[in-house]
Design a protein that fits this description.
By secondary structure, the protein is mainly α. It has five helices and two strands, in the order ααααββα. It has a single domain, classed as Orthogonal Bundle (Cytochrome Bc1 Complex, Chain D, domain 2), CATH 1.10.760.10. The N and C termini lie far apart (about 85 Å). The chain binds heme C (HEC).
Length: about 160
């Protein structure tokens, strides 16, 4: 009986050490992978030389569509419940008349409004996305804007 208990403890201890090792290891790997994925470093800061719409789409469909909707009408599943509503990139011509630099700044820093004591609005992406990623996603938004307007112009 005593033997069984001590063996049990041994197994438990081994299991704990093993889990600890796994966590420690996956933690480091996770961070490395995140860094690699973000390509954090000088190459990713500043403005990219040219838009990469495929990359922009990937980022948009990972982080932005919940609020802004796949086609940019501000009608994502989370967005419809938000007040103020997320920007409608296709139909809100006044907002989209802002320059790319202004919109980039909003994506970087977010927009904060005090509504009844609660700050609600557009999240800031500076810590989540690199400069390059924020530019690519902005260019993708411009692309959605153009596509949506073209489609509207074709309606009878
Ligand atoms: C939690 C919901 C939410 C998510 C997720 C979200 N947004 Fe927004 N976004 C908003 C809201 C709300 C506004 C309108 C803010 C306002 O005017 O008060 C907004 C506004 C904007 C604007 C207009 C900024 C301006 O200067 O008028 C841009 C551009 C934008 N979002 C880009 C993005 C991008 C790019 C992503 C993904 C990386 C994203 N948003 C993710 C809620 C969201």
């Amino acid at each position: 009986m005593g033997g069984f208990v001590s063996m049990g403890r041994g197994v438990l201890a081994a299991a704990l050490i093993f889990t600890g090792a796994l966590y420690g290891c996956s933690g480091d790997k996770g961070q490395e992978a995140a860094k690699a994925a973000k390509g954090a470093g000088p190459a990713q800061s500043g403005k990219p030389a040219a838009p990469d719409l495929a990359k922009g789409k990937e980022i948009y469909e990972q982080y932005c569509h919940f609020c802004h909707g796949y086609k940019g009408y501000g009608d994502g599943p989370v967005g419809i419940a938000l007040s103020p509503h997320p920007a409608n990139f296709v139909e809100d011509t006044k907002r989209m008349a802002k320059t790319d630099d202004e919109l980039f700044k909003s994506i970087t820093e977010g927009i904060h409004r005090d509504i009844g004591g609660e700050a609600m609005s557009m999240p800031r992406w500076q810590e989540v996305l690199t400069d390059h990623e924020r530019w690519h996603v902005l260019w993708y938004i411009r692309h959605l804007e153009n596509e949506g307007r073209k489609a509207a112009a074709q309606e009878p």
